[in-house]
Specification:
67% helix; mainly alpha; 287 residues
């Protein structure tokens, strides 16, 4: 299968999953459990399928957050609410948010068909659990009954499958978590400082990573991160390798299934973006 089609199929449907990181419903559900500390709801809800995970396990599987940020809320989150309760809260938040954002599309035959195709892709990925710890943890959860939640859960699985592969690609490229963020910002997609602040690294740490990448020939010598020709090739290799490692679920659909899933999910994703359910029209947690 063409990796371009697989990538586009994932990207087209990604807002259906990614909205969970931004919507008010998620904050309300996590706050109701007592997960009120900054970022606690995010780390606990995404990590809860792993069980009462240590901070080190969350650092390893999430990859690019400042470990001190993780340690500030994990494992203390598990003293406030059980992983099972947090998983349930996340699904409630997804249900409420999607009902609000998708409106009349809920319960339609087209949404049901999209959920069937997305589940087929996600179940195809389940044949390749090896080296995918975060995906495997989420894949162990029971499937919901409602079509919109099946679609959301399937896209969540596809996102975590891709994310686990992306970490492999970054490690192969010998990029540490902060260096990966620097090179990602240097591509020019993100406004300056967004990745630094969202992952809670200090400016000093960021600058040290920039210096390491300049010594390696990945960054130009300017103050603002700018990739050299070598750096551009390295970053392209990372993205190409990620696409290659993410093919399995889309092979399960085939070209026709991928094209159909894209057509069915495009208006759903557009409704989510147009409804303001994503602050940046994509996930800040992709890297």
């Amino acid at each position: 299968m063409d990796t371009t089609l697989a990538h586009k199929t994932w990207r087209t449907a990604e807002p259906i999953h990614a909205m969970i990181y931004f919507v008010e419903e998620a904050k309300e559900e996590y706050d109701a459990l007592g997960l009120t500390a900054p970022r606690m709801g995010y780390f606990a809800s995404r990590g809860a399928p792993l069980g009462a995970a240590s901070a080190e396990l969350i650092v390893a599987t999430f990859f690019n957050f400042n470990p001190e940020l993780v340690r500030s809320v994990i494992p203390s989150a598990w003293d406030i609410a059980t992983p099972e309760a947090i998983v349930a809260a996340r699904f409630r938040a997804a249900d409420r948010a999607l009902r609000r954002g998708l409106g009349e599309a809920i319960g339609t035959p087209s949404l049901r068909r999209a959920s069937q195709l997305a589940r087929q892709a996600a179940e195809g990925a389940m044949e390749h659990l090896e080296g995918r710890p975060l995906f495997a943890a989420h894949a162990h959860l029971e499937w919901p009954e409602d079509d919109h939640l099946v679609l959301w859960h399937a896209q969540t699985l596809l996102r975590e499958f891709r994310g686990d592969g992306h970490i492999v690609a970054l490690i192969e490229a010998e990029l540490d978590p902060l260096e990966a963020l620097v090179t990602h910002e240097a591509v020019g997609v993100w406004p300056s400082g967004v990745l630094l602040s969202s992952r809670a690294w200090s400016l000093e740490q960021w600058n040290e990573a920039c210096d390491r990448l300049r010594e390696r020939g990945v960054l130009e010598t300017q103050d603002a991160p700018m990739l050299t020709t070598q750096g551009q090739a390295l970053r392209k290799h990372v993205e190409d390798r990620t696409d290659q490692l993410s093919l399995a679920p889309y092979r399960a659909l085939g070209d026709d299934g991928c094209n159909e899933l894209r057509e069915l999910t495009r208006p759903l994703s557009r409704a989510i973006v147009d409804g303001g359910m994503l602050s940046l029209a994509t996930s800040l947690f992709e890297e």
